[in-house]
Amino acid sequence: MGKKTGQTPRPKGGQNREDRLKAALKANIARRKAQAKARGKKPEE
Predict the structure, then answer these.
(1) What predicted TM-score, i.e. pTM, was given to this entire model?
(2) Using CA atoms, how far apart are residues 20 and 27, in angstroms rounded to an integer?
(3) Which of 2, 6, 16, 44 has the most CB atoms less than 10 A away?
(4) Three-state SS across 1-45?
(5) pLDDT tens digits, the chain, 45 residues: what are they?
(6) Is 27 left (phi over 0), alpha (psi -120 to 50) or beta?
(7) Rounded to a whole number, what is the distance in angstroms from the first to the last CA of the chain?
């Protein structure tokens, strides 16, 4: 009754989330650069 449902304790959730975000950002940038190169345009930066 006193416990909220759907929430589980995550001891190191913040660090893991940051690692996943960094990896996703790096992959996204690499993919965008590859797409821009294939189109023959400069990447936006």
Answers:
(1) 0.55
(2) 11
(3) 16
(4) CCCCCCCCCCCCHHHHHHHHHHHHHHHHHHHHHHHHHHHCCCCCC
(5) 565 666 655 566 778 999 999 999 999 999 999 999 999 865 565
(6) alpha
(7) 53
